[in-house]
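To make this tangible, this section ends with a sequence with its structure tokens:
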Amino acid sequence: MIEEMETTDEFLARHSADVEEAVRKAAAAEIMPRFRQLAEHEVDQKSGPHDLVTDADRLAERHLTEALGALLPGSVVVGEEAVHANPASYEAIRGDAPVWIIDPVDGTRQFVHGDDGFCTLVALARHGIVLASWTYAAARDQLATAVRGQGAFLDGERLFAGPPTPGRDLRVATSHPDYTTDAEKRALLGLWTDGVAPRECGSAGLEYLAVARGESDATAFSWEAAWDHAAGLLLVEEAGGAHLTRTGEPFRITGGNTLPFTAARDAATARRVAGLLASAV
């Protein structure tokens, strides 16, 4: 436990390893025992057949909410499942208190189908600024971390995204058509052009990690839910990347963004993708 007057910077200096341990413990206790072992009654639909939730999501979020709240007294939690139950709780992102932003199982569809392409996402933010993030792919035993101004790391090794390979088509992960409006579909059509190779995305958190590692060049996403984006956006930034909406402004986790938006491995690629998204509207 820490004193309430401790700043978030001081907290991160002292307790980043404790957050990492909490994330690993939540996954070990609630997620991995259910991986490829889910019973039918442990899987539900939220808004439709593509929007799934499992007991692993609910219980891991509860585990993290208790553990992280205890680590940082005075903080609040915005978790995907809690917001589904009480949408008003999302407003805490815009408040004054430090806020933990949690997606207990990002890539629930993959998790349900027994695919290892899922992860747990945790970010710590204040006043709309993401200060630190943890991306844990438990089935792959990979942990990516970032602290604002201190770099991005995967399993302790520094990440540098670097520019795309000259002359090669840009590899861009895009929103699934089932989750886009007609206007967003038109914007995304701007990527279907020479020099770009768009594809449907998997877990948002792992797509951001692929950009930070330089394995993918950019994302083009059409939704705002902070639990999907906060951790990954900081990871990309700290690896040398950038993010822009199609009107050329950085994405804000507090909302009000012009969608779709992109996160890319360097600023030039972000401008290029944002321009293509804007050109098709």
